[in-house]
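User: Can you help me understand a structure? I only have the sequence.
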Amino acid sequence: MELGQLEAFLVAVRLHSFSRAAEEIGVTQPSLSARILVLEAELGEPLFHRVGRGVRLTDAGRAFLPYVQRAMVTLQTGRDAIESSKTASAGKLHIGAARSISTNVLPGILETFRERYPGVDVAIKTGRSSEVLEWVLSEEIQLGIARDLRHPDVMTTHLYDEQVVLVTHPQHRFASSAVASIYEVASEPLIVYDKESTYFVLIDKICREAGILPNIQMDLDSIESTKRMIERGLGISFLPLNALSRELELGTLALVSLEEDHRITLPTGVMVLKAASYGAIVSAFLELLSELYPESAPLSQTA
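Assistant: Let's start by predicting it. Here is the structure, written out as tokens:
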């Protein structure tokens, strides 16, 4: 069953004539008649009564008609979607993002993207950075924004370095001097955000290099919950600076520097599956990121 056969069928139904249908389509009448005959042979039933110079539908033809009409509408919708995707004027963009990025960074990016491309719908999945990479590889999403994870099948472009800072209650003893030693941190109740996350892996690495064992009192899977616990004076934590703007402005949390001058940063990038080219919507989003993060540069594309 071919598109040309279905088109011939619909035009013949509308014009009640094979000759007029052939003229509209731009083929000879024998060619159009042949298309209809092949279609009828495939279906095993005649679709038209040939009456004089005209045609009318058989019962089988009337039963078949609404399905062909719906199929042609669906195909046209597909054509329209392809045309829209060429200019990023309409369509859907599937993005994956690490949780902190989705909450604190992505909204600002999407606000600008929506202003430029109001016809594009955006679907977002959030999870750990490792999950975002898997979604890119399985093509569940078109691009992912997460911590710097590399894979031979993925192109990763570095966007910015996320600063991770020591956070306490504003009345905590560390807050009064705004500085503490990593060895003092080891004696404090530490609240960690997601032991499987890159945040915890980095903090654990720093503690091990200093030869200390952190006093972990709570393990939460939400940065927002972690902040609320600190505000209650239940412990201290290391958190991404991007997630703290509201609390720092309100004075409900305090930043503390480490005496040893540890600067804890997590490289953050955008990941896309390697391809010769990308659709207009994905390309438009990548171009926006390059504008927002002009210092971004391609990272290694191999693991």
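Now, to help you interpret it: The CA atoms of residues 21 and 27 lie 9 Å apart. Residues 299-303 have pLDDT under 50 and may be disordered. Let me know which part you'd like to focus on.
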